[in-house]
Write a structure and sequence with these properties.
28% strand, single chain, 216 residues, 3-stranded antiparallel β-sheet, 6-stranded mixed β-sheet, 25% helix, alpha+beta, flat
């Protein structure tokens, strides 16, 4: 993650602490969530829905803000302060890490879905990279075929690299080339603009099942 050299507000500092202490959020997941949602507060708000999408039935345990406030207050009483990676005071040796791979995720629908032949699907795709985004592609396979097809692509070849992109688009079932009884598995890929050793990433794979007239 690139350093933004920006001092966090006290509310943002509390968000960082609560996100890092929440259930199932380790260092890699923390970085991924910040990259996708842009802030720890937004990531905290999204965690319950992400857990449900992942099949979790019980409520995920978010670290209580009151407990976080107590922890920061106790640290301050001892003359300490939580310093985040995005802040200028963060130690340079710790910040000097190898270029991280890009991040990409479907934030809508982000799950397996069913549609009628006359229906449509709204997609939202989030991508992020510290050096800048290269080409982003949405790919698919129909009816478990061997050949992958490109549904849509974004070259991201402008002179000034984009570090973050949120793409929203809509496709009808007909535009996807599907009909009743078809099943499409789709995913997205991204590369970054590291000229020495380009990094890459891929989303999870999801399914669109088109209902037949009998099933509708």
């Amino acid at each position: 993650m690139a350093r933004a050299a920006r001092v966090l507000s006290e509310s943002e500092r509390l968000d960082w602490l609560c996100l890092s202490r929440s259930e199932n959020v380790g260092p890699a997941t923390f970085r991924d969530l910040l990259g996708i949602y842009g802030s720890a507060g937004a990531a905290l708000a999204a965690l319950p829905q992400l857990a449900r999408r992942g099949g979790r039935r019980s409520r995920i345990k978010l670290f209580p803000r009151a407990a976080g406030e107590d922890e920061l207050a106790a640290l301050a009483q001892r003359g300490g302060r939580l310093i985040a990676l995005s802040e200028p005071e963060y130690p340079l040796p710790l910040a000097a890490t190898v270029d991280a791979p890009p991040l990409i995720a479907f934030t809508r629908p982000g799950r397996d879905i069913q549609r009628q032949p006359e229906g449509a699907v709204e997609f939202q795709l989030a991508a992020n990279d510290d050096l800048g985004l290269g080409e982003v592609k949405m790919l698919a396979q129909v009816n478990q075929g061997d050949e992958s097809i490109t549904i849509q692509n974004w070259p991201n070849d402008q002179l000034k690299p984009r570090r973050r992109a949120l793409v929203e688009f809509k496709k009808t079932i007909d535009e996807l080339g599907l009909r009743g009884g078809d099943q499409m598995q789709y995913w997205a890929t991204v590369v970054d603009r590291n000229p020495a050793a380009p990094g890459s990433a891929q989303t999870r794979k999801f399914n669109i099942i088109v209902l037949t007239a009998e099933q509708a």
